[in-house]
Automatic annotation (TrEMBL):
It comes from the Eukaryota. Residues 176-204 form the C3H1-type domain. It comes from Paxillus rubicundulus Ve08.2h10. Coiled coil: none annotated. This is C3H1-type domain-containing protein. Residues 158-170, 177-193 have a biased composition (Basic and acidic residues). Residues 156-193 are annotated as: Disordered. A zinc finger (C3H1-type) spans 176-204. Keywords: Metal-binding, Zinc, Zinc-finger. One of its GO terms (molecular function) is zinc ion binding.
């Protein structure tokens, strides 16, 4: 494959995974996309008769965002369909499915979508009768990685982050339950509109809470 005309720019070690039907490591694909350094020589067995000796690029980047995933999986589609053209429909359908998941959740939770994709591709590589388009067979993984009560790899981190957010919201509200006045807005240094600010855009002098800034309190009184 590496010597075939039109062979794509794809990490040689991930070519080995592709040919053997194993899950491609998108972190390595993305890292190879950006790296300019070469790591040590490695060997991979391809069946009983062949061994592939290659030099692999050093890891330089991890898949952390929708954009990262799109680059890495897009290159994976190109490589996979170069070797197995019949996989085009399956892989492009999975790309569309995961992209829809990314667009359906907040950016803070894109890491869970990435973990879900990885878990699905590992299952498909381990159970050859399953295809990426068998969406119903991944319901348990979707619960594990994408539900708020799932037990995915980052479920503890998600709970911690939810706690932090709750603390931030609590701090922005006084004991009465109302949001505290925005002191930066009163100093004309808050760059957020009232609808996006965690604090309320009202006068912070005493209990005034008027629709004017603190320096204009006397004029409004």
């Amino acid at each position: 494959i590496l010597l075939a005309p039109g062979c794509l720019d794809f990490p040689p070690d991930q070519w080995a995974n592709t040919v053997k039907g194993l899950a491609v490591d998108l972190n390595k694909v993305l890292g190879a996309h950006y790296t300019t350094e070469i790591d040590t020589k490695q060997s991979y067995d391809l069946g009983d008769l062949f061994q592939l000796s290659i030099r692999t690029p050093k890891q330089s980047k991890m898949v952390r965002t929708h954009g990262d995933w799109s680059i890495a999986f897009g290159k994976t589609i190109q490589a996979t369909t170069f070797a197995f053209p019949q996989c085009w429909a399956e892989y492009t359908a999975w790309q569309a499915y995961v992209s829809q998941l990314f667009s359906s959740v907040q950016t803070d939770y894109h890491r869970q979508v990435i973990d879900f994709d990885k878990a699905v591709r590992l299952r498909v590589s381990n159970q050859k009768h399953i295809r990426l388009t068998d969406f119903a067979k991944f319901k348990d993984l979707r619960t594990i990685f994408l539900s708020p009560y799932g037990m995915g790899l980052n479920s503890g981190e998600r709970a911690t982050e939810r706690g932090r957010r709750s603390d931030r919201v609590g701090k922005s509200r006084g004991n009465s339950g109302r949001r505290e006045p925005c002191h930066e807005w009163n100093r004309s240094t808050c760059d957020k509109p009232a609808s996006e600010c965690s604090f309320e855009h009202v006068c912070d002098r005493g209990n005034c809470r008027g629709n004017h800034r603190r320096p204009n309190h006397s004029d409004a009184a």
